[in-house]
Fold this protein.
Amino acid sequence: MSLAGELRLIPIPLADEIAPGDALAEKLLHSLRGQRVSLRPGDILVIKHKIVSKAEGGMVDLATIRPSEDSVSWAQKYGLDARVVELALREGRSVVRRKNGVLITETSHGFVCANSGVDVSNVDGGRHALLLPEDPDRSAAQLRRQIKKFTGLAVPIIITDSFGRAWREGLTEVAIGVAGMKPMRDDRGRRDPLGYSLRVSVEAVADELACAAGLVCGKLNRTPACIVRGYRYPTGRGSARDLLRPAGSDLFR
Amino acid sequence: MSLAGELRLIPIPLADEIAPGDALAEKLLHSLRGQRVSLRPGDILVIKHKIVSKAEGGMVDLATIRPSEDSVSWAQKYGLDARVVELALREGRSVVRRKNGVLITETSHGFVCANSGVDVSNVDGGRHALLLPEDPDRSAAQLRRQIKKFTGLAVPIIITDSFGRAWREGLTEVAIGVAGMKPMRDDRGRRDPLGYSLRVSVEAVADELACAAGLVCGKLNRTPACIVRGYRYPTGRGSARDLLRPAGSDLFR
């Protein structure tokens, strides 16, 4: 039984590894059928980007990367793979910080994260690196259309990755692709129960949904997606770009 | 019916405003009884700091604050309340950034956030400002002991606030006080299903739990707390300080 106002996170495990060209929407729906769970109106589907990138073929054979001298010496200094460093530099449009073996870049999409989001874990034992989806909003919109085709339901889709933060230790999930909802809840101008106007109350709900999903979508339990049920999301068109602070108004790059 | 692996967030609404000296644990348990919900082993209790600060009397009468000339001129320039600016500067142990009307400080606890966490919304219409709890870990530990006294269950407690981030727009909830669990899940050294060691996989689960709770604990719906049910949290002693990156290894202050 669900209580009124309760929110539920329903994991969607996938037994198989995802390969380039795989039909992701069908595989997720197949897993749900196996659990006897049906999508419902109001559900949100949250998906880790790795399976999206894999399905889209966003893998790079590290043997094809010729690192620059600079990448080689920096990688040697910190015990890193120079080819991954090289790839991360290529995938970034600017370097935000590069110090103590940490490389923080701004990606072509505008995300500020470590190594431009280039990842070698959970891929194939270190031979290939996985890139972020080329256009995660577009990937989310495509999945949304496919899910609608099969189920008749147009559910919001959030694609996530694990990013580090300034000032705080540890990674948390963030939304890198959004379709079918607004990623921010804007309460500015509304009044609290005591009549005081809420001044700076823009809540990054897509990132909070990503974090919530991160609790059930484990790296080690082959659960790359989940349903969020019971959350009244901000309706309307939205993009993960809405979550990006323009460099000009950012005090920390 | 709950499915295996499912996670549930159960809101704990409070009808009344919290006043200094209120017995928070009793009020939360009273609300749960009203909903016919019982705490269970494995539950986590997540609580917005505002009711904790209010119960602890962490309110400052703004009429008692004499802002410095500097605070007055800066506040005038950006249409802010000089007394709140003054209080924020007093509550911080250092200023991290101060530009474009935004004041980012490091608080006495070590949190990096806007205005040292000083807040005037949802207090009493702008007469008083609310401070962060003096020692949020201690507040969490006290609540944990009281909940245990009444229910026999030693559940983890997370106290949260809404912080802004570098690079990304919007606020998200973060853990500022933790008792009864480790705030980080450390998968370093474990191997993914393909045998590749997970290199940088420390997950700030207390912050993800805070974000998840943020989805059901609204500013406007008088729901300052919730239960997270079904999450296998990292057991052991922990502190919200574990989430703070030491200034010396932080590339962004």
Summary: Residues 8-51+136-243 of chain A form a domain with the 60s Ribosomal Protein L30; Chain: A; fold (CATH 3.30.1330.100). Residues 136-151 of chain A form the longest helix (16 residues). DSSP finds six helices and twelve strands in chain A. Helices of chain A lie at 24-34, 49-55, 69-78, 82-91, 136-151, 205-216.
